[in-house]
């Protein structure tokens, strides 16, 4: 990935992985890419033990030098105007997976994906959900078969206490983006830690 990319970086509400996502945003910026933060309604408004929503928005805007897109009207032009070369959804919750798998575009993140895909441009998803091998498994399987959609390799993060949970290896996000731009799914998709 030597050329400068325009990357839309979507965050949905898996708040425990925001720091990992932020680290990858910093790596993408350090590599010379332009990154625009896009936040789901929950990501931009819900305070948690992992930080206040307004602080996360400020932190992302300060790091990227770009205003966060947090409304449906802000993300709708992504596809028509060809705003990004690649769209990343990291973290991607089970709810977001379900909405994407069923064509529901009622949040800034899901509408951003729908709008971006209209130009057949790559979308990279970094799963982070406690029910990936349960209720969300069907959504992952459906999305795996969608053209231009790629997953960051993922693994079970706690097989004893959370046997249905999968979390993407955020350190492999840049490699997944590079492969996605070539139309390739980085392998192995699911690995053992």
Short overview:
Helices cover 36% and strands 18% of the residues.
CATH class: Alpha Beta
Poorly predicted regions are: none
For the record, the count of structural domains works out to: 1
**What is the 3D form?**
globular
Kindly report the CATH topology.
Rossmann fold
C-alpha Rg, in Å? 15 Å
State the share of residues found in helices, binned by percent. Answer: 25-40%
Discrete helix count: 8
- Largest sheet geometry: 7 strands, mixed
Structural class: alpha/beta
- Termini distance? 27 Å
Query: What is the H/E string?
Result: EHEHHHEHHEHEEEH
CATH superfamily: Flavin prenyltransferase-like
CATH architecture: 3-Layer(aba) Sandwich
What is the strand tally? 7
Word description of this protein:
- The structure is a single chain.
- By secondary structure, the chain is of the alpha/beta class.
- The protein has 8 helices and 7 strands.
- It has helices spanning 18-30, 41-45, 53-64, 72-75, 94-101, 108-117, 137-144, 173-181, and strands at residues 6-11, 34-39, 86-92, 123-129, 149-151, 154-155, 166-168.
- Strands 1, 2, 3, 4, 5, 6 and 7 form a 7-stranded mixed sheet that branches.
Q: What features would you highlight for this structure?
A:
36% helix, globular, alpha/beta, 193 residues, Rossmann fold
Write the layout of secondary structure elements.
Blueprint: E1 6-11, H1 18-30, E2 34-39, H2 41-45, H3 53-64, H4 72-75, E3 86-92, H5 94-101, H6 108-117, E4 123-129, H7 137-144, E5 149-151, E6 154-155, E7 166-168, H8 173-181
Parallel strand pairs: 1-2, 1-3, 3-4, 4-5
Antiparallel strand pairs: 4-7, 6-7
Helix pairs in contact: 5-7
């Amino acid at each position: 990935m030597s050329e400068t990319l325009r990357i839309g970086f979507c965050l949905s509400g898996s708040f425990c992985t925001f720091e990992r996502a932020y680290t990858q945003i910093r790596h993408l910026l350090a590599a010379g890419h332009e990154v625009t933060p896009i936040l789901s309604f929950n990501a931009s408004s819900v305070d948690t033990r992992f930080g206040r929503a307004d602080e996360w928005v400020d932190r992302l805007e300060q790091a990227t030098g770009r205003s966060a897109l947090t409304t449906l009207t802000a993300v709708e032009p992504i596809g028509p105007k060809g705003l990004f070369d690649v769209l990343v959804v990291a973290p991607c919750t089970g709810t977001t997976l379900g909405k994407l798998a069923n064509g529901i575009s009622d949040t800034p993140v899901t509408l951003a994906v729908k709008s971006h895909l209209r130009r057949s441009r790559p979308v990279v998803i970094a799963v982070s959900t406690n029910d990936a091998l349960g209720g969300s498994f069907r959504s992952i399987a459906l999305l795996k078969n969608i053209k231009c959609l790629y997953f960051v390799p993922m693994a079970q993060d706690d097989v004893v206490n959370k046997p249905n949970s999968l979390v993407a290896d955020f350190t492999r996000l840049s490699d997944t983006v590079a492969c996605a731009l070539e139309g390739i799914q980085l392998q192995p998709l699911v690995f053992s830690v």
